[in-house]
Amino acid sequence: MPGDQSGVRVMLVDNEPERARMVHDALEAEGYQVICQRDSTRGLVAAVAQEEPDVVIIDMESPDRDTLENMAMLNEHAPRPVVFFASGDSDSNTIQQAVSAGVSAYIVDGLEQHRVKPIVEVAIARFESFQSLRDQLAETRTALEDRKEVERAKGLIMEHHNCGEEEAFRSLRKLAMDRNQKLGRVARDVIGVLGSEDDSSGRGEALDE
Amino acid sequence: MSNTEATQPDAVRLGFIPLLDAAPLIMALEEGFFEAEGLDVSLHRQPSWASLRDRVSVGLLEGAQMLGPMALASNIGLGAPVCRVVSPMVLSRNGNAITVRRTLYDQLMATGYDLSQPRESARALASVVTDSSEPIRVAAVYAWSSHYLQLRDWLASAGLKPGGRIQLVTVPPPEMLTALASGSVDIACVGEPWNSLAEYHGVGHILVSGSQIWQNAPEKVLGLREDWVRSNPDQVHRLLKAVIRSCRWLDDPANRERIFEVLSAPEYLGEAIQPLGESGQAVFHPRIHQHFFRQNANFPWLSQAEWLLFRMEAWGQREEASTPPDLENIFRPDLYRGAAAALGLDSPIMNYKPEGQHHHPFKVAGHRGPIEVASDRLINAESLA
Question: What is the ipTM of this complex?
Answer without folding.
Answer: 0.84
